[in-house]
């Protein structure tokens, strides 16, 4: 049985939130548990409701979405954040990913595309707008490897870059999820990275995985 994903919507335009709630309501496995008008409200509501996924606008008054994403990742590290905005400006794309967003989507995305991104985020999988992915690959600066990855860590990194969850990787490699988590933790440490999304971008930038293998 598919587990229902609890979602918090954050946008300073009530009409946008209403539209998102209507579209997402078509998916029986997504439950919109709350809404917030800005970043500060998002922090308060997320701590109160503990959603699996937060859909976060970036350009809002009081507290912008990038600042809210960074603070929310510290407060609720198990809650994933999808940046949903109307811009592909490089500093917004880079800022959202560096702050900890697992996915970057545009507001003109179809309801099916957004629903897929929400389910993917709940599984710890990356979804990126194609142009955002290309810009991140071009601009992402992670430096050289501090240590060499083991063959198993390299395979895990390739699968991670293709959007696979820990559960999927564990199944394909015939190991436990705990072992996969250890591999992910070690490769992030070796590469000096902070998140799965950054690791996926590193793999793309250094030719370890290709854009064709990444779910968009």
UniProtKB/TrEMBL annotation:
Span of domain HTH luxR-type: 142-207
Residues covered by the Response regulatory domain: 6-122
Pfam families for this protein: GerE, Response_reg
CDD domains: LuxR_C_like, REC_NarL-like
Domain of life of the organism encoding this protein: Bacteria
InterPro entries in the record: CheY-like_superfamily, NreC/VraR/RcsB-like_REC, Sig_transdc_resp-reg_C-effctor, Sig_transdc_resp-reg_receiver, Tscrpt_reg_LuxR_C, WalR-like
UniProt keywords, alphabetically: DNA-binding, Phosphoprotein
PTM annotation (4-aspartylphosphate): residues: 57
SUPFAM superfamilies, per the entry: C-terminal effector domain of the bipartite response regulators, CheY-like
Protein name stated in the entry: Response regulator protein VraR
Organism: Deinococcus xinjiangensis
């Amino acid at each position: 049985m598919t587990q229902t994903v609890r979602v918090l919507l954050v946008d300073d335009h009530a009409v946008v939130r209403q539209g998102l709630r209507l579209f997402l309501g078509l998916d029986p496995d997504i439950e919109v548990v709350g809404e917030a008008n800005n970043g500060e409200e998002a922090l308060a509501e997320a701590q109160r409701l503990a959603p699996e996924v937060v859909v976060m606008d970036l350009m809002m008054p009081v507290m912008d979405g990038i600042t809210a994403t960074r603070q929310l990742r510290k407060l609720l590290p198990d809650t994933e954040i999808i940046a949903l905005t109307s811009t592909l400006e490089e500093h917004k794309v880079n800022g959202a990913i560096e702050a900890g967003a697992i996915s970057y989507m545009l507001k003109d995305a179809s309801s099916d595309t957004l629903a897929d991104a929400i389910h993917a985020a709940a599984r710890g999988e990356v979804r990126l707008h194609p142009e955002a992915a290309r810009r991140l690959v071009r601009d992402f600066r992670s430096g050289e490897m501090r240590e060499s990855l083991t063959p198993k860590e390299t395979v895990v990194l390739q699968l991670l870059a293709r959007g696979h969850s820990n559960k999927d990787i564990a199944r394909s490699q015939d190991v436990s999820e705990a072992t996969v988590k250890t591999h992910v933790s070690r490769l992030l440490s070796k590469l000096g990275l902070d998140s799965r999304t950054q690791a996926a971008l590193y793999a793309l930038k250094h030719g370890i995985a290709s854009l064709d293998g990444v779910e968009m």
